[in-house]
Design a protein that fits this description.
The complex is a heterodimer of chains A (about 375) and B (about 350). Chain A has about 375 residues and is of the alpha/beta class. Chain A has helices spanning about 1-20, 25-30, 60-70, 85-90, 105-110, 145-155, 165-170, 190-200, 205-210, 225-235, 245-250, 270-280, 320-330, 350-360, and strands spanning about 50-55, 75-80, 100, 120-130, 145, 180-185, 220-225, 240-245, 255, 260, 265, 305-310, 315, 365, 365-370. In chain A, strands 1, 2, 3, 4, 6, 7, 8, 9 and 12 form a 9-stranded mixed β-sheet that branches. A 3-stranded mixed β-sheet of chain A has the order 5-10-11. In chain A, strands 13-14-15 form a 3-stranded mixed β-sheet. The radius of gyration of chain A is 23 Å and the shape is elongated. Chain B is mainly α and about 350 residues long. Classes of the chains: A alpha/beta (about 375), B mainly alpha (about 350). At the A-B interface, helix 4, strand 7 and helix 10 of A face helix 6 and helix 11 of B.
Chain lengths: ~375, ~350
C-alpha cells in the first residue's frame, strides 16, 4: 500500500519536474537512481534527511539544500548549525543522518561509534585570513608575515607593530609603534583549528606551548565570539590582529596580511590561492582525515583546510542510506557550483574523485547505497 | 525615632487571629467535598512536577559531569583554562569573573536603583511618574543580546578610547585601573550587568516604597520631620526587606547572565587580580563558548561541570540572601515597631 502511494507520488513529482526543469536535469538528477529498487520506484521513499555540525558550513549548506529540495527526488535536508563538536556528538548518538565538521574526528571519537566505521567526505574548503587594524598602513598594502612571526605575535612575544621581526619582512612600509592586541575566537571553532594546525606546523614554540585544536588555551589577547565577533573587535581596536574566514575579509573593509608559503612566496588569501593549496597537496591519506596547512606549490595560500561531511559507512536503513548517498554525491558535484558566490572554495578534481570512492563504499544492506 | 503605632498593631493582631480561625473552619469543610479534594490533588501534582524538574536537572548535571569530577577532582576549581589540546580543564578565572562582575553590578545598581525608586515615589512630579516608570519597564524589556551588542559595538570601543584612559589618568593609583585598556573586559561586563539588573532593583524598590503606609509618613511629618527624615526613618526601614529581595533577584540574574557578558568580557582567562581592565571569563560564558565545539567525552563533561558549579553558586547565594532577609525582617519587627 505504502509502496504504491510512494510510487504514485514520485511519478507525480517527476511529471511536475519535467514540466518545469530541463529534461537533462531530470536525467542527471533522478537518472542516477534509475536502477529499479525493491519497491519499483526510482527515488528512495525517504524525503527528509537531517544533519548537524559545523557553523562554518552552514551558509553553503543552506544554499545547497534549498536548491537540492527543488530538484532530484525533492529531498528536504534539515541542517542544524550547532558546531562541529556537537555535530559529532549527535552523529555518535545517531540522532542525525550525517554530521559536518571542520576538523577530522579523533581516533578516540571514532572508537565510540556504535555502528562501525565513520567516513570522512571533504565537502568544501575554508581559508583563514589574518586580519589586522593598522590605520597608519595603507589599506592596499597587505603586510607580509611569515609563520614563525605570526606564531610569535599570537604567543605574545612580539608586542609592537614596529618590532624588527615584522619590519624586516616589510621594508618600504613605515610601521607605527603601536601595541599589538591579539583578538581570537572565544568559542571553539574550525577556523581556530586550521590556524593552530598551521602555527603548529611552522613553529615548534607554538607547538609545545599551545598546540593545535578547535579550542585553545590562548596565552594572550581578547576573545570574541564567532567570526563576526572577531571581525568587529579587530575593526574596533586600533593595533589589533585577528583571524577570520576568508569570506569575512573579502566582503568587509578589513585589512589582511599576505602569508609566506613553503616556497617562500608571500600569498594573499583568495579563493584561487586556497584552491591552489588544496590542489597542490599530494600526501593524502586513505581515510581523508588530513590538514592541508603549509602546503607547498606555486601560489598556495598556507592557512587553509577542509570541512567534512561525516556518515556511517554501514547504513542501517537502506532506503535512507540511498537518499543520503545521493545527497552527498550531489553536494560534492553539482552542489559545488554555489561555492564561489558565497566565498567558499570549490573542491579540486583529485578530492572529488576520492569523495566518489568514499560514497560508493557506503553499504545499504548487502549492496552499495549509491547506485550511480 | 520610635513610632507609636501600638493601637494599629493590636488591630492587626486581632485580624490575623480571626483569619487563622476562619481558615481552620474552611479547611474542615473543604476536605469533606470531593471537588476540593481533587483540586488539592491537582495542585500537589503541579508542585511535584516542579520539584521533579529541578531534581531531574540536578541529576543530569551530576551524572554527566561525573567523568570530569572524577578525573580532575578539586583541581578543576584551581586550573586556569579549558585546554583540550593538553587535556586540562579548569574554571578558576571563571568563578572569579562570575563573582566579581556580579558584585560590581550589585554595588553600583543598588544605590542607583534605590535612589531612582525614592525619586519616583517621593520627589517626582506626579505628572512625570507614569512616563518615568514606563521608561524603566522598557529598560527591563530590552533583550540581553541587544544590550550585549550595544556593549560590544558602542560601549567597549568608547571604554577603550576614552573611558578607560580617563579612569587611568585620574584614578590610576587604584589597583582597579592598570595595564592596557582593551575595552572588552571585567569592567565592561560589570557595567553591562549593572544596566541589566538596575530595572529589577528599581521596580521592586519602587513597589515596596509605594506600600509604605501613609500613616507612617504622616506620623513623621506631624512630628516635624523633613522629607529626607521621612525617607530615612519611615520609608527605608519599612522597605528594607523588599529592597533586599530585589537585590537578590538582581544578583541571580547577574550570576546567570550569559550572552551579553560573553560578548563584552573578553573571554580570555587572566589570573585573578583587582584589575578591572583585565579580560575575564564567567561560568555561563564558558558554557556558551565551549559547548558547540565540545567533543564527546571529558570535554563535554567539563562543560557540564561548569553548569553544575553555576547551579551550586546560585544556590549558595540564594541561601545566604534568604538568611539575610530573615535577619533584616527580625530587626524591623524588633526595632522599629516597638
Amino acid at each position: 500500500m505504502f509502496d504504491r502511494i510512494s510510487a504514485i507520488r514520485s511519478l507525480g513529482s517527476k511529471i511536475a519536474l519535467s514540466a518545469v526543469v530541463a529534461a537533462s536535469l531530470v536525467v542527471a538528477a533522478c537518472g542516477t537512481t534509475s536502477t529499479p529498487t525493491a519497491n519499483g520506484t526510482t527515488c528512495p521513499s525517504t524525503t527528509s534527511l537531517s544533519g548537524a555540525g559545523s557553523t562554518f558550513d552552514a551558509p553553503l549548506f543552506s544554499k545547497m539544500f534549498t536548491e537540492y529540495a527543488g530538484i532530484s527526488c525533492k529531498v528536504q535536508i534539515n541542517y542544524q548549525a550547532v558546531g562541529s563538536g556537537t555535530g559529532i556528538t549527535q552523529l555518535l548518538q545517531q540522532t542525525v543522518d550525517f554530521g559536518a565538521s571542520d576538523a577530522p574526528m579523533k581516533d578516540t571519537d571514532l572508537a565510540k561509534s556504535p555502528n562501525g566505521a565513520i567516513l570522512h567526505i571533504p565537502v568544501t574548503i575554508g581559508a583563514v585570513a589574518i586580519s589586522y587594524n593598522l590605520s597608519q598602513v595603507d589599506a592596499s598594502t597587505h603586510l607580509k608575515l611569515t609563520g614563525p612571526v605570526l606564531a610569535n605575535i599570537f604567543l605574545g612575544n612580539i608586542k609592537f607593530w614596529d618590532d624588527t621581526a615584522i619590519a624586516q619582512l616589510n621594508t618600504g612600509t613605515t610601521l607605527p609603534h603601536v601595541a599589538i592586541t591579539v583578538v581570537h575566537r572565544s568559542d571553539g571553532s574550525g577556523t581556530t583549528g586550521i590556524l593552530s594546525h598551521y602555527l603548529t606546523a611552522v613553529s615548534p614554540d607554538w607547538s609545545s606551548k599551545v598546540g593545535a585544536g578547535n579550542t585553545l588555551n590562548w596565552p594572550t589577547g581578547v576573545g570574541a565570539k564567532g567570526n563576526a565577533g572577531v571581525a568587529s573587535a579587530v575593526k574596533n581596536t586600533a593595533g589589533s590582529i585577528g583571524y577570520n574566514e576568508l569570506a569575512y575579509v573579502l566582503t568587509n573593509t578589513i585589512q589582511y596580511a599576505q602569508v609566506q608559503n613553503q616556497n617562500g612566496e608571500f600569498v594573499a588569501p583568495s579563493l584561487d590561492s586556497a584552491k591552489a593549496a588544496a590542489a597542490n597537496f599530494t600526501n593524502i591519506p586513505a581515510d581523508l582525515r588530513f590538514y592541508i596547512v603549509n602546503a607547498g606549490g606555486a601560489g598556495s595560500y598556507p592557512i587553509s583546510g577542509y570541512s567534512w561531511v561525516l556518515v556511517y559507512q554501514k547504513q542501517t536503513s537502506s532506503d535512507k542510506g540511498q537518499a543520503l548517498a545521493n545527497a552527498v554525491w550531489w553536494m560534492v558535484h553539482d552542489g559545488q557550483q554555489f561555492s564561489a558566490a558565497l566565498s567558499y572554495v570549490a573542491l579540486p578534481a583529485n578530492i572529488v574523485q576520492k569523495d566518489e570512492a568514499q560514497i560508493k563504499s557506503m553499504t545499504c544492506g548487502s549492496g552499495a547505497c549509491y547506485k550511480g | 525615632m520610635q513610632i507609636p503605632i501600638e493601637t494599629s498593631l493590636n488591630g492587626a493582631r486581632g485580624r490575623v487571629r480571626d483569619w487563622i480561625t476562619q481558615s481552620r473552619i474552611r479547611l474542615r469543610v473543604e476536605t469533606r467535598r470531593p471537588a476540593n479534594l481533587a483540586f488539592r490533588a491537582l495542585m500537589l501534582i503541579f508542585v511535584g512536577i516542579v520539584i521533579l524538574i529541578v531534581l531531574g536537572i540536578t541529576f543530569v548535571l551530576v551524572s554527566n559531569s561525573w567523568l570530569s569530577i572524577r578525573t580532575f577532582g578539586l583541581s578543576y576549581l584551581s586550573n586556569d583554562a579549558f585546554d583540550p589540546v593538553h587535556n586540562t580543564y579548569g574554571v578558576q578565572p571563571a568563578i572569579f569573573g562570575t563573582l566579581v562582575t556580579s558584585l560590581f553590578a550589585l554595588i553600583f545598581a543598588l544605590p542607583i536603583g534605590i535612589g531612582t525608586a525614592i525619586f519616583l515615589v517621593d520627589y517626582c512630579p506626579r505628572r512625570l511618574r507614569l512616563p518615568f516608570a514606563f521608561v524603566l519597564d522598557l529598560l527591563a524589556a530590552i533583550p540581553s543580546v541587544v544590550l550585549g551588542l550595544w556593549g560590544f559595538l558602542v560601549m567597549a570601543p568608547w571604554l577603550q578610547n576614552s573611558g578607560e584612559p580617563w579612569l587611568q589618568k585620574h584614578f590610576g593609583f587604584l589597583p582597579f585601573f592598570q595595564g592596557t585598556p582593551h575595552g572588552l573586559g571585567l569592567l565592561a561586563a560589570g557595567m553591562i550587568l549593572t544596566v541589566m539588573i538596575l530595572p529589577i532593583i528599581t521596580a521592586i524598590s519602587r513597589e515596596v516604597m509605594l506600600n509604605v503606609p501613609t500613616s507612617q509618613r504622616e506620623a513623621l511629618l506631624a512630628l516635624g520631620a523633613t522629607r529626607w527624615e521621612v525617607i530615612r526613618h519611615a520609608v527605608i526601614p519599612f522597605s528594607r526587606v523588599g529592597i533586599a529581595g530585589g537585590a537578590i533577584l538582581g544578583l541571580g540574574r547577574a550570576l546567570g547572565e550569559t550572552i551579553a557578558v560573553t560578548m563584552v568580557i573578553g573571554n580570555q582567562a587572566a589570573p585573578p587580580s583587582a584589575n578591572l581592565f583585565n579580560t575575564g571569563y564567567t561560568l555561563s560564558s564558558v558554557i556558551a563558548n565551549q559547548f558547540g565545539e565540545a567533543t564527546p567525552g571529558i570535554f563535554v563533561s567539563a562543560v557540564l561541570e561548569a553548569g553544575l558549579l553555576l547551579l551550586i553558586i546560585t544556590l549558595i547565594t540564594n541561601i545566604l540572601a534568604r538568611v539575610l532577609i530573615a535577619r533584616l525582617g527580625r530587626v524591623r519587627a524588633g526595632g522599629v515597631s516597638r
